[in-house]
Design a protein that fits this description.
Layout lengths: L6 E6 L3 H8 L6 E7 L7 H14 L3 E8 L12 H15 L3 E4 L13 H17 L3 E5 L18 H10 L5 E5 L2 H4 L5 H8 L3 E6 L1 E4 L1 H7 L8 E4 L8 H10 L6 E3 L12 H15 L10
Parallel strand pairs: 1-2, 1-10, 2-3, 3-4, 4-5, 5-6, 6-7, 7-10
Antiparallel strand pairs: 8-9
Helix pairs in contact: 1-2, 2-3, 3-4
Length: 295
């Protein structure tokens, strides 16, 4: 079992060489590197060498590398997304990680179930490629503003969709990149969900939510007033000690990486203040630093 259960943060893959040396002093233990829609012209071999060498010096790791776009369409700004999944799978070992993460994609403006055949076509092949490289694929549970009926980015935001996905591609190396926030915005209770799905959770994003139940009760969820906010852990509604307990009871081997840049209060000049608070909060929720038993 991962005794430490590392706590880290998300960093843009193209900015990793610049950003990680600036924030390592705060005590982040892992870094999840992400690219938006494409890896572009980034030299992945050179980036991997520079980043991996630096994090190793600071007893940290690269937890995941991922691309967030729509690999099912192959058009417009997403024309390189599928090829980027392939490149990241091929280069994951250079970063010292075995997880490539991102959105599933979806057929735009169609119900989730109509995306399943294309999902099967694309990710049967990607899962085989990943298996050949000892890599697992993790799908973020973010709706990106989509619903069951329509959307542009991702189908992996609902447990009914997860059943369809994993039945269509019954591979052991595909799973979830899970966080409570993306379920709470749909008023789903994340704790029993995690308990049920924990064996399919390969990576955890450190992002929470605050639900204003008074607004829900008075105005509903389709009115003019906001009723839920994405939050940095330590400022939201979730008890992360419960999440970590469930993860450890299931033998979870991954990390929790803070997904910042969403909190309505701890943002802009307070961004790193909020992230470091979340880092320390999550470390406390796991029980602090690992302490070996006496012999």
């Amino acid at each position: 079992m991962n005794k430490k259960l590392r706590v880290g943060t998300l960093v843009g893959g193209g900015d990793a060489v610049r950003i990680i040396p600036q924030i390592a002093k705060h005590g982040f233990e892992s870094y999840s590197l992400s690219f938006w829609q494409t890896t572009g012209n980034i030299d992945l071999k050179e980036t991997a060498k520079r980043v991996a060498d630096f994090v190793a010096e600071h007893d940290a790791v690269i937890s995941t590398i991922g691309v967030f776009g729509n690999p099912l369409t192959g058009t417009g700004d997403n024309k390189d997304t599928l090829a980027s999944w392939e490149r990241l799978i091929d280069h994951a070992h250079l970063f010292g990680t075995d997880i490539v993460n991102g959105f599933t994609g979806r057929i735009p403006d169609r119900p989730i179930d109509e995306s399943i055949p294309k999902f099967k076509e694309v990710f049967c092949e990607l899962s085989r490629r990943a298996a050949d490289h000892g890599v697992r694929l993790a799908f973020e549970n973010c709706d990106m503003g989509g619903t069951w009926k329509t959307g542009d980015w991702n189908i992996a935001h609902n447990p009914t969709a997860w059943n369809l996905m994993f039945n269509a591609v019954p591979a052991d190396n595909i799973g979830l990149e899970w966080e409570p926030c993306h379920q709470m915005v749909s008023l789903i209770d994340p704790i029993p969900q995690l308990r049920k799905w924990v064996d399919k959770v390969f990576h955890v994003h450190g992002k929470d939510a605050t639900i204003a139940w008074d607004i829900v009760r008075e105005h509903g969820v389709h009115g003019s007033k906001e009723f839920v906010w994405h939050r940095t852990p330590g400022f939201g509604d979730t008890n992360w000690s419960d999440i970590i307990t469930i993860l450890r009871q299931a033998g979870y081997q991954g990390t929790i990486d803070i997904e910042g840049w969403h909190d309505p209060v701890y943002r802009d000049e307070l961004e790193m203040t909020g992230q470091v608070h979340a880092l320390n909060y999550l470390k406390r929720c796991r029980g602090g630093d690992y302490i070996p038993n006496p012999v």
